[in-house]
Protein backbone atom coordinates (compact mmCIF):
# COMPACT_ATOMS: atom_id res chain seq x y z
CA UNK A 1 0.00 0.00 0.00
CA UNK A 2 1.26 3.48 -0.86
CA UNK A 3 0.89 5.73 2.16
CA UNK A 4 -1.15 8.86 1.65
CA UNK A 5 0.92 12.02 1.68
CA UNK A 6 1.53 13.47 5.13
CA UNK A 7 -0.36 16.68 5.77
CA UNK A 8 1.83 19.76 6.25
CA UNK A 9 -0.41 22.11 8.28
CA UNK A 10 0.59 20.75 11.70
CA UNK A 11 4.33 20.64 12.41
CA UNK A 12 3.76 17.46 14.39
CA UNK A 13 0.97 14.95 13.91
CA UNK A 14 0.87 11.60 15.68
CA UNK A 15 -1.97 9.11 15.30
CA UNK A 16 -2.77 5.95 17.23
CA UNK A 17 0.69 5.45 18.70
CA UNK A 18 1.18 2.07 20.32
CA UNK A 19 4.33 0.94 22.11
CA UNK A 20 4.60 -2.41 23.82
CA UNK A 21 7.49 -3.38 26.08
CA UNK A 22 8.18 -6.94 27.20
CA UNK A 23 6.37 -10.04 25.96
CA UNK A 24 4.01 -12.75 27.16
CA UNK A 25 2.83 -12.19 30.72
CA UNK A 26 5.37 -9.38 31.16
CA UNK A 27 3.92 -7.48 28.18
CA UNK A 28 3.01 -3.86 28.94
CA UNK A 29 1.34 -1.46 26.54
CA UNK A 30 3.15 1.74 27.45
CA UNK A 31 1.34 3.70 24.73
CA UNK A 32 -2.06 2.53 23.60
CA UNK A 33 -3.43 4.73 20.85
CA UNK A 34 -1.97 8.13 21.72
CA UNK A 35 -2.80 11.03 19.36
CA UNK A 36 -1.13 14.43 19.23
CA UNK A 37 -1.21 17.46 16.90
CA UNK A 38 1.02 20.47 17.45
CA UNK A 39 0.65 23.58 15.30
CA UNK A 40 3.42 26.02 14.39
CA UNK A 41 3.87 28.49 17.26
CA UNK A 42 2.55 26.14 19.94
CA UNK A 43 4.28 25.13 23.16
CA UNK A 44 2.65 21.98 24.50
CA UNK A 45 3.45 20.39 27.86
CA UNK A 46 3.03 16.69 28.59
CA UNK A 47 2.62 15.64 32.21
CA UNK A 48 2.04 12.24 33.79
CA UNK A 49 3.34 10.08 36.63
CA UNK A 50 6.83 8.60 36.51
CA UNK A 51 6.81 5.54 34.26
CA UNK A 52 3.65 6.58 32.38
CA UNK A 53 5.56 6.65 29.07
CA UNK A 54 6.42 10.32 28.55
CA UNK A 55 10.01 9.73 27.47
CA UNK A 56 8.88 6.79 25.34
CA UNK A 57 6.37 9.10 23.62
CA UNK A 58 9.02 11.77 22.87
CA UNK A 59 11.36 9.13 21.47
CA UNK A 60 8.69 7.95 19.04
CA UNK A 61 7.85 11.55 18.05
CA UNK A 62 11.53 12.25 17.44
CA UNK A 63 12.20 9.11 15.41
CA UNK A 64 14.62 7.71 17.99
CA UNK A 65 12.45 4.64 18.42
CA UNK A 66 9.75 3.09 16.25
CA UNK A 67 6.15 2.51 17.36
CA UNK A 68 4.49 -0.92 17.23
CA UNK A 69 1.55 0.79 15.51
CA UNK A 70 0.53 4.31 14.53
CA UNK A 71 2.02 7.15 12.54
CA UNK A 72 4.13 10.25 13.14
CA UNK A 73 4.59 13.17 10.70
CA UNK A 74 6.99 16.05 11.26
CA UNK A 75 6.94 19.09 8.96
CA UNK A 76 5.13 17.09 6.27
CA UNK A 77 7.55 14.14 6.37
CA UNK A 78 6.91 10.66 7.72
CA UNK A 79 8.81 9.70 10.85
CA UNK A 80 6.63 6.61 11.25
CA UNK A 81 4.44 5.86 8.24
CA UNK A 82 1.49 3.52 7.75
CA UNK A 83 3.02 0.08 7.38
CA UNK A 84 6.53 1.13 8.38
CA UNK A 85 8.59 4.25 7.99
CA UNK A 86 11.71 5.69 6.42
CA UNK A 87 14.96 3.73 6.51
CA UNK A 88 17.68 4.55 9.04
CA UNK A 89 19.54 6.96 6.71
CA UNK A 90 16.43 8.94 5.78
CA UNK A 91 15.33 8.98 9.39
CA UNK A 92 18.65 10.29 10.64
CA UNK A 93 18.62 13.03 7.96
CA UNK A 94 15.10 13.97 9.05
CA UNK A 95 16.16 14.09 12.71
CA UNK A 96 19.14 16.28 11.85
CA UNK A 97 17.14 18.70 9.68
CA UNK A 98 13.78 18.91 11.38
CA UNK A 99 13.99 17.90 15.03
CA UNK A 100 15.84 19.34 18.01
CA UNK A 101 15.91 16.90 20.90
CA UNK A 102 16.75 17.80 24.51
CA UNK A 103 17.20 14.50 26.34
CA UNK A 104 16.25 13.83 29.95
CA UNK A 105 19.85 12.75 30.57
CA UNK A 106 21.51 15.27 28.19
CA UNK A 107 23.60 12.85 26.03
CA UNK A 108 26.48 15.29 25.61
CA UNK A 109 29.59 13.76 24.05
CA UNK A 110 32.08 13.31 26.91
CA UNK A 111 35.24 13.93 24.85
CA UNK A 112 34.05 17.35 23.59
CA UNK A 113 33.83 20.54 25.64
CA UNK A 114 30.50 22.33 26.04
CA UNK A 115 30.93 24.68 23.09
CA UNK A 116 32.06 21.85 20.78
CA UNK A 117 28.98 19.85 21.76
CA UNK A 118 26.76 22.76 20.77
CA UNK A 119 28.68 23.48 17.56
CA UNK A 120 28.83 19.86 16.41
CA UNK A 121 26.07 20.33 13.77
CA UNK A 122 28.20 23.12 12.23
CA UNK A 123 30.94 20.58 11.49
CA UNK A 124 28.75 18.10 9.59
CA UNK A 125 29.19 17.75 5.81
CA UNK A 126 26.97 20.18 3.91
CA UNK A 127 26.26 22.35 6.97
CA UNK A 128 26.24 26.14 6.76
CA UNK A 129 29.14 26.33 9.21
CA UNK A 130 29.29 30.15 9.44
CA UNK A 131 25.61 30.63 10.21
CA UNK A 132 25.43 27.70 12.65
CA UNK A 133 28.58 28.81 14.47
CA UNK A 134 27.21 32.34 14.91
CA UNK A 135 23.89 31.00 16.15
CA UNK A 136 25.63 28.54 18.51
CA UNK A 137 27.85 31.26 19.99
CA UNK A 138 24.79 33.48 20.53
CA UNK A 139 22.93 30.67 22.30
CA UNK A 140 25.91 29.91 24.56
CA UNK A 141 25.95 33.59 25.49
CA UNK A 142 22.16 33.80 26.02
CA UNK A 143 22.13 30.72 28.21
CA UNK A 144 24.85 32.11 30.46
CA UNK A 145 27.38 29.43 29.46
CA UNK A 146 30.24 31.52 28.04
CA UNK A 147 32.40 31.09 31.16
CA UNK A 148 32.13 27.29 31.14
CA UNK A 149 32.15 26.72 27.36
CA UNK A 150 35.64 25.16 27.43
CA UNK A 151 34.77 22.58 30.11
CA UNK A 152 33.89 18.99 29.31
CA UNK A 153 30.57 17.46 30.42
CA UNK A 154 32.01 15.71 33.53
CA UNK A 155 33.30 19.11 34.70
CA UNK A 156 29.87 20.76 34.28
CA UNK A 157 26.97 20.87 36.70
CA UNK A 158 23.75 19.09 35.76
CA UNK A 159 22.07 22.40 35.01
CA UNK A 160 24.97 23.54 32.81
CA UNK A 161 24.88 20.25 30.89
CA UNK A 162 21.16 20.70 30.40
CA UNK A 163 21.62 24.20 28.97
CA UNK A 164 24.34 23.01 26.57
CA UNK A 165 21.99 20.25 25.46
CA UNK A 166 19.29 22.86 24.84
CA UNK A 167 21.65 25.05 22.81
CA UNK A 168 22.59 22.02 20.69
CA UNK A 169 18.89 21.30 20.04
CA UNK A 170 18.18 24.91 19.01
CA UNK A 171 21.27 25.59 16.89
CA UNK A 172 19.85 24.42 13.55
CA UNK A 173 16.47 26.13 14.12
CA UNK A 174 14.45 22.94 13.53
CA UNK A 175 10.65 23.20 13.02
CA UNK A 176 10.08 20.78 15.93
CA UNK A 177 11.70 20.84 19.36
CA UNK A 178 11.21 17.98 21.79
CA UNK A 179 12.41 18.52 25.34
CA UNK A 180 12.34 15.90 28.09
CA UNK A 181 12.25 17.56 31.54
CA UNK A 182 14.14 20.63 30.24
CA UNK A 183 14.17 22.41 33.61
CA UNK A 184 14.42 19.29 35.77
CA UNK A 185 17.94 20.08 37.00
CA UNK A 186 17.85 23.86 37.02
CA UNK A 187 17.44 26.48 39.72
CA UNK A 188 14.63 29.02 39.33
CA UNK A 189 16.69 31.60 37.39
CA UNK A 190 18.22 29.11 34.94
CA UNK A 191 14.83 27.40 34.56
CA UNK A 192 13.18 30.69 33.66
CA UNK A 193 15.90 31.30 31.05
CA UNK A 194 15.28 27.91 29.44
CA UNK A 195 11.50 28.43 29.43
CA UNK A 196 12.02 31.87 27.83
CA UNK A 197 14.06 30.24 25.07
CA UNK A 198 11.48 27.53 24.45
CA UNK A 199 8.72 30.16 24.36
CA UNK A 200 10.79 32.24 21.95
CA UNK A 201 11.36 29.18 19.76
CA UNK A 202 7.58 28.66 19.59
CA UNK A 203 7.15 32.38 18.94
CA UNK A 204 9.28 31.99 15.80
CA UNK A 205 6.72 29.51 14.43
CA UNK A 206 8.26 26.29 15.68
CA UNK A 207 6.34 23.56 17.48
CA UNK A 208 7.65 22.72 20.94
CA UNK A 209 6.71 19.70 23.03
CA UNK A 210 8.10 19.48 26.54
CA UNK A 211 7.68 16.78 29.13
CA UNK A 212 7.69 18.23 32.62
CA UNK A 213 6.67 17.73 36.23
CA UNK A 214 7.01 21.36 37.12
CA UNK A 215 4.25 23.94 37.56
CA UNK A 216 6.47 26.82 36.41
CA UNK A 217 6.87 24.97 33.09
CA UNK A 218 3.22 24.00 32.55
CA UNK A 219 2.28 27.61 33.35
CA UNK A 220 4.23 28.73 30.26
CA UNK A 221 2.58 26.18 27.93
CA UNK A 222 -0.29 26.91 25.56
CA UNK A 223 -1.80 23.50 26.34
CA UNK A 224 -1.16 20.83 28.94
CA UNK A 225 -1.77 17.17 28.11
CA UNK A 226 -1.74 14.26 30.54
CA UNK A 227 -0.35 10.86 29.58
CA UNK A 228 -2.28 8.20 31.42
CA UNK A 229 -3.10 4.57 30.59
CA UNK A 230 -1.23 4.95 27.31
CA UNK A 231 -3.31 7.86 26.03
CA UNK A 232 -2.95 11.62 25.92
CA UNK A 233 -5.85 13.76 27.14
CA UNK A 234 -6.21 17.50 27.60
CA UNK A 235 -5.64 18.71 31.15
CA UNK A 236 -5.60 22.37 30.23
CA UNK A 237 -6.65 23.66 26.82
CA UNK A 238 -5.62 27.28 26.37
CA UNK A 239 -6.46 28.99 29.66
CA UNK A 240 -9.23 26.54 30.55
CA UNK A 241 -8.87 23.59 32.94
CA UNK A 242 -10.37 20.44 31.41
CA UNK A 243 -12.09 18.08 33.84
CA UNK A 244 -12.50 14.48 32.82
CA UNK A 245 -16.10 13.29 32.71
CA UNK A 246 -17.48 9.78 33.24
N1 LIG B 1 13.48 -0.72 26.58
C1 LIG B 1 12.54 -0.97 27.50
N2 LIG B 1 12.22 -2.23 27.83
C2 LIG B 1 11.25 -2.51 28.75
N3 LIG B 1 10.56 -1.53 29.39
C3 LIG B 1 10.85 -0.27 29.11
C4 LIG B 1 11.85 0.11 28.15
N4 LIG B 1 11.91 1.45 28.07
C5 LIG B 1 10.99 1.92 28.94
N5 LIG B 1 10.35 0.90 29.55
C6 LIG B 1 9.28 1.01 30.56
O1 LIG B 1 8.27 1.84 30.02
C7 LIG B 1 7.70 2.64 31.06
C8 LIG B 1 7.69 4.09 30.60
O2 LIG B 1 9.01 4.60 30.61
P1 LIG B 1 9.32 6.13 30.31
O3 LIG B 1 10.78 6.31 30.41
O4 LIG B 1 8.68 6.48 29.02
O5 LIG B 1 8.53 6.83 31.51
P2 LIG B 1 8.42 8.39 31.88
O6 LIG B 1 6.96 8.73 31.88
O7 LIG B 1 9.32 9.18 31.03
O8 LIG B 1 8.93 8.39 33.40
P3 LIG B 1 9.81 9.50 34.20
O9 LIG B 1 8.85 10.58 34.59
O10 LIG B 1 10.29 8.73 35.38
O11 LIG B 1 10.93 9.95 33.31
C9 LIG B 1 8.53 2.41 32.30
O12 LIG B 1 7.81 1.56 33.18
C10 LIG B 1 9.77 1.70 31.80
O13 LIG B 1 10.24 0.74 32.72
MG1 LIG C 1 11.09 10.25 31.38
Description:
The protein has 246 residues and is α/β, with parallel strands linked by helices. The protein is 29% helix and 26% strand. The protein has seven helices and eleven strands. A seven-stranded mixed beta sheet has the order 6-7-8-3-9-10-11, sandwiched between helices. It has a four-stranded antiparallel beta sheet with strand order 2-1-4-5. The mean pLDDT is 90. Bound molecules: adenosine-5'-triphosphate and magnesium ion (MG). The site of magnesium ion has 4 residues, from helix 1. Magnesium ion binds next to helix 1.
Give a topology summary.
Blueprint: E1 12-21, E2 28-38, E3 43-47, H1 54-61, E4 69-74, E5 77-80, H2 88-98, E6 99-102, H3 114-119, H4 129-142, H5 158-170, E7 176-180, H6 188-203, E8 207-211, H7 215-218, E9 223-228, E10 231-237, E11 240-241
Parallel strand pairs: 3-8, 3-9, 6-7, 7-8
Antiparallel strand pairs: 1-2, 1-4, 4-5, 9-10, 10-11
The structure holds adenosine-5'-triphosphate and magnesium ion.
List keywords for this structure.
246 residues, alpha/beta, Rossmann fold, four-stranded antiparallel sheet, 7 helices, 29% helix, binds adenosine-5'-triphosphate, binds magnesium ion
Strand order of the largest sheet: 6-7-8-3-9-10-11
CATH homologous superfamily heading: P-loop containing nucleotide triphosphate hydrolases
Relative helix content: 25-40%
How large is the share of residues in beta strands?
A: 25-35%
Bound molecules: adenosine-5'-triphosphate, magnesium ion
Overall morphology? globular
Summed over residues and divided by their number, the pLDDT gives a mean of: 90
What is the gyration radius calculated from CA atoms? 18 Å
Number of domains: 1
Terminal Cα separation, in Å?
39 Å
Q: What order do the helices and strands follow?
A: EEEHEEHEHHHEHEHEEE
Structural class: alpha/beta
Looking at the structure, the CATH topology is Rossmann fold
Q: Architecture in CATH?
A: 3-Layer(aba) Sandwich
- The number of distinct β-strands equals 11
| CATH class group | Alpha Beta
Largest sheet: 7 strands, mixed
* Number of helices, counting only DSSP H or I runs of 4 residues or more: 7
Ranges where pLDDT stays below 50 over 5 or more residues in a row are none
Amino acid sequence: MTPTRPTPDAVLRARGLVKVHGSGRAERRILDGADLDVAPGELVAIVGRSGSGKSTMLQLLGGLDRPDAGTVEVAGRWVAAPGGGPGERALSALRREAIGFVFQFFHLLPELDGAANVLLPATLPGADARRLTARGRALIEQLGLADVAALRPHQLSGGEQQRFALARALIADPPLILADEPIGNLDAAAGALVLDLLRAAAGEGRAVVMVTHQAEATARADRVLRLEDGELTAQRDGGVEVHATG
